Amino acid sequence: MTPSFSTYLVNDPFGDPGLYVEVKWARRALLFDLGQNDALGPTRLLRAGEIFVSHTHMDHFIGFDRVLRVALGRGKTLRLFGPPGLIANVTGKLRGYTWNLVDGYPLAIEVKEFHPQEVRSATFLATEGFAPREASPRPRSDLSPARPFLVLEDPMFAVRAIALNHRIPSFAYALQEQFHVNINKERLHAAGLPVGSWLKELKQHLWQGQPDDFRFTASLYFEHRREEREFQLGEVRDRFVTITRGQKIAYVVDARYDDENEAKIVELAQGADIFYCEAPYLERDADKAKERYHLTAHQAGLMARKAGARELVVFHFSPRYTGQGEAIRREARAAFEDLLPASLSPGGRGEGEGGI
Asked: What DSSP letter does each residue of 118-166 carry, written as one string?
């Protein structure tokens, strides 16, 4: 199966947090957190139309300015989602600049912040000097503070969040593909049909839940000709498509390890194909981690195992461990695989760099 999402950290594990998720075949991306993002070129940033902010501590939000600068002057809408206070934080960022020459610019910024009882939203238009237009709050239907709630629903996927305790709400996110559409190219070729953009249309119809008797016209591009052909969705699906479980990505940063946070994280990340989890501290410094409302590598690995994640990627390492990146990965891996971490064995202290 070719995954629908291609994911990678914006920076190295000692840099600012950020996860870039490319939606394959769609020229579209999602961005989780807005730390320093110079590593992303303008093209990648412009593809990230939806941005999910955990909270607005500087290392998670300083990259907003660069996104704004790259998007300014483009016919684009940026959509930001996050915790209470996000609208005020975006307003403050925008008020830090003078906008007397942007009245012809087409950029729009839409912000949604999720409170325990309601959702607040605001729109900022370049044509209005980014003065905030706040809409009336709407009540939330999913009011359980212990359960993940829906932040964005797309025909292809959904993004859910949960509020974690970081002395302020810090949102963790899960991206879940509705289901995965696998195209059998050998059967296509045997039927004399080409691959191409018409398959994107086919997938969209399936994700949208169109009925089997739904008919659609697609443009087929052969080697020397273009042809319009009508298809019946159910027939095409039965001949050329296999439906499998959708891909799931979890992203967790900045949370203290306690029973409530653990239960929330394990539920959010349940069955994740890739679980991106912060690991700023080694377990030997668990008291410091608790004091600073952060996780240890051992705790990250333990929760990944409890969640049944297929792969764990740890990041957001504290600079106090510079040169000990491999020790952090090793401790997380040991807890994930239910082994005794070297850092917890008598006298054990790992050094070095590497990947988990």
From this structure: EEEEEEEEGGGTT-EEEPPPEE-S---TTS-EEEEE-SSEEEEEEEEES
As a whole number of angstroms, the distance between CA 186 and CA 222 comes to 16
- Percentages helix, strand, coil for the chain (3-state, rounded to 5) are 30, 30, 40
Q: Provide the b/e sequence for 228-246 (b: ≥16 CB within 10 Å).
A: eeebebeebbeebbeeeeb
Instruction: Starting at the earlier edge strand, list the strands of the sheet with 169-177.
Output: 149-153, 157-165, 169-177, 248-252, 274-278, 312-315
Cβ neighbors of 216 (< 8 A, separation 6 or more) are: 201, 202, 205, 230, 231, 233
Q: Who's near 202: CB < 8 A, 6+ residues apart?
A: 181, 183, 216, 218, 231, 233, 236, 237, 241
Torsion of CA 113, 25, 9, 266, to 10 degrees: 60
CA distances from residue 240 to 183, 198, 236 in whole angstroms, order as listed: 6, 13, 6
How many Å apart are CA 46 and CA 41, to the nearest integer?
Answer: 9
| Rounded Cα–Cα distance for residues 157 and 180 (Å) | 10
Tokens 């307003």 sit at which residue?
Answer: 91
Q: Is residue 31 pLDDT above 90, yes or no?
A: yes
Query: What span, in angstroms and rounded, lies between the C-alpha atoms of 354 and 13?
Result: 11
pLDDT of residue 175: 98
**Type of residue at 40:** L
3-state DSSP of 336-353: HCCCCCHHHCCCCCCCCC
Q: Give residue-wise pLDDT tens across range 184-220.
A: 888 988 988 898 888 888 888 888 888 999 999 989 8
Q: Where are the domains of the chain?
A: 180-244
Residues 91, 103: Cα–Cα separation, whole Å: 17
Could you tell me if 236 and 243 are in contact, meaning their C-beta atoms sit under 8 angstroms apart? no
Q: Which residues contact 347 (CB under 8 A, 6 or more apart)?
A: none
State the average pLDDT over residues 295-300: 98
Cα(171)–Cα(210) distance, integer angstroms: 33
